[in-house]
Every structure is written in C-alpha cells, then in structure tokens.
Amino acid sequence: MAGNLTFDQLKKAVASGEIDTVLACAVDMQGRLVGKRFLAKYFVESAYDETHGCNYLLANDIDMEPVPGYKAASWSKGYGDFVMKPDLNTIRNVPWLEKTALLLCDLQDHHTHEDLPHSPRGILRKQVKRLQERGYLAYFASELEFYLFSETYDSARAKHWQNLDTASPYIGDYLIGITTKEEGVMRRLRNEMEAAGIPIENSKGEWGPGQEEINVRYAEVLEMADRHVILKNGAKEIAASEGKSISFMSKYNYGLAGNSSHIHNSLWSADGKTPLFFDKGAEWTLSKLGQQWAAGQLKYAKEFTWFLAPYINSYKRFQAGTFAPTKIMWSEDNRTAGFRLCGEGTKGIRMECRIGGADLNPYLAFAALIAAGLAGIDEKLELQKPFVGDAYQAASLPEIPKTLRDATETLASSKMLIEALGEDVVEHYVHTARWEQFEYDRRITDWELHRGFERY
C-alpha cells in the first residue's frame, strides 16, 4: 500500500522539524479513524513498531458506548488491549494539519500478533489474500457524495439539525456556476488530498442543494479503502477549518437526494497490467470471468446489503425516482438499477455497485463484494441479460432489503459470507446490526412527537 512518505523520509522530516506530530490511526467498525497523536520523535524512536489500544473500540457503537454481548470483547473479559501495528507503507503528510503525518495501523491480537479477524482492515486483507492465491488483483474506486453546509457543526447541533443552510440554495448537479461558490472548501479538498497522496480526479455538484460528489482515482482495493477513510476524515476537518460542515449521512433530509458511495470494481492480472474483465469477442465485451463475478454479486446482494447500508438511516435512501436503487439487477448504462456496467468496449470495463450509501465502511463493503464475486466464479454462475427500462417500476425484479431488520436477518443466514469471512466475523457484525436496531426501536423520534403529541 502506498502513502507518499517512506519511513526514512519521515525520520528526516522529524529530525529537521518539518513534522512534529504523527497520527497513528486504525479503522473502527463504523469506518472512522481512531488512534493516537504522537510527538513525532517518540513515534520514530519506538512506536513505529507497535502501540496499543483498548479492544472495546471494535465492540462499541457509534456513540462510543460499550455494547454488551460481543464474544471478542466485554466487561467480563476486562476490555484489554489489542496491538496497533503501524503499516509503514501508508505514511503520508497531512497538508491541512500543521506539521503532521498520518499512517494506518492493522489491529492484531495482543498475544499472537495475528490480525484480529473482526477488524475491518483485517477482513479486507483476508479477501485480498484469496484474490492473490488465484493470481488476481482487484482495482476498486468509490465515489463519495456528501452535503456541504454553511453551518459549523456547533451551529447545526444548536439548530437540532433542522433548517440548515446548505452551501448552495438550490440543486447544482453538474452546474459550474453554482459550484464555484463552494470552491473555498472543494478546491482545498481536491488539492490537499492530492498532496496527501490521495489523487482526486474531479468533484462536481450533485442532485441536492449543496450536495457534492468527489471521485478518487482507482487503486488496488486495500489502498482504495485506505484512501476512502482518510478522505472522509480529512473532508470534515477541512470543512470545519473553513467554518463549514459536511454530512455523509445516507439521507439527512426526507425531501432531498441521499448520499451514495458507488463502488466500481474489476479484476486484473497479478501485476496489474492485464484487465481480466475485457474480452472484445464476449457479449457486452465482458469476459466470462467478469460475467461470473457480476453474477455472484447479483446472487448474493441481499445477503451483503448490510455491509453497504449499516444503519437505520441507510434504508431511508432507497426511494424510487431519487437515483438511489431499489432493485437488484444489472444494466449496461442505467442508473435505476442496483448494478451498472461501465467502460463497455474498453480495458476499463468494470461493474459499478450503486447500492451503498456514503455511511458505509469501505473495508467491509469491498470485502463483501469480493466474497460474492469469488463465489460467482467458484459456482460458475451465468450472468442474466441486462435490464432495460425503469427498474423502479419493474415489480418482478428482486428488491434490495427495505429495512435494517430485513438486511440483518439475511446477513445472519448467509452461508456464503460465513464461509468467506468466518462464522465469528459474521456473528460479530450481526450483533452490531441488531444493537443498532435495538437502540432505534426504543427511541422516540421527532416524527412520532409531531404526529402523536396532540393527536393521539
């Protein structure tokens, strides 16, 4: 994996005073960066080998509350340490923070120093190993959408997240004039991510007022997941420094478009030079391998939907006529379908999964897509004909799970994912999903108060 600094370069930058802080970060179940800020000289002296963190960080909810019932960590086990093993290939400077470098850590068992099987980066690394054993390299790219607000996070909280001022007052999908007004944040985001070793191809206005899409250059799948989480974290930090705020919620407002994270994926030869999905003579110019891969993702889409939509709110995005998919079907170039074939007739041919929201954890989402694709290859599945027309109105097509509860129970019974990821891993994330549902079920919402306070 590639940052933009070697360890030797980091040591020189620390010695010269160019860098005085090192962020040693791991990724939690929610896809957030967690970790420690090191005085740089101590990091390069000793912590570069390993540091430690509390294992409750992979057994808590989005509010950082310890969740009962996990096998991996609990009060009865004392919430001990795990090892945070720095991946020295991921070191990069952080242009938006003064004299700061960042790197990612793998989470390992405190005693065996093996990857924790339920750690998001470890889950993806396992699927990468399965690809490597077959001589494959996976290139992925994720498109992230978000809303940019002319509010600070403090002012949004003070307003109870209602009637917020978006960076633009009306929809500016592809409009250059309106997005020029948003350049204070977006220009910094493009340029400073590039300087941090995260190449940004472009940004554009999306189908909501103040909504943005940012496209990161495709990369090997683990590197892409690393880029994704650093981008999300950095985008919020850059916006905050400009007196703005950003939300990656799947659906922050009922009346507005949701935030997606479309995932492009393809297989290449181990050296990354030969596209394995491109075949001029094949139907749709998609090779037999590519067709099997896509067929696997279609077959198992219901089973892995939770990895693409992990929260109650995630399922509010799946609404007809909003450019978010509601049906499990593929198309050649049709944004109403859950999967879309892109780059047909070129070496860049790939499948785009349109199901995921911007709230997904990329390590988990990418791992699930790989597992399903490999299952399609192993089972030699045949790819059905592409759908043509308005998938929203096609009652006969299989539907994406409509609720978190549906997706959770489908995940729990997935033999394919249990085999590919491990029974304990699936159980761990099913428990996570059920806790999210439990927390929601016992809460009183504004919608309930509005409807029932006086009327009941």
TrEMBL record:
SUPFAM superfamilies: Glutamine synthetase, N-terminal domain, Glutamine synthetase/guanido kinase. InterPro entries: Gln_synt_N_sf, Gln_synth/guanido_kin_cat_dom, Gln_synth_cat_dom. It comes from the Bacteria. Residues 120-456 form the GS catalytic domain. Its EC number is 6.3.1.2. Its cofactor is Mg(2+). This is Glutamine synthetase. It comes from Aminobacter niigataensis.
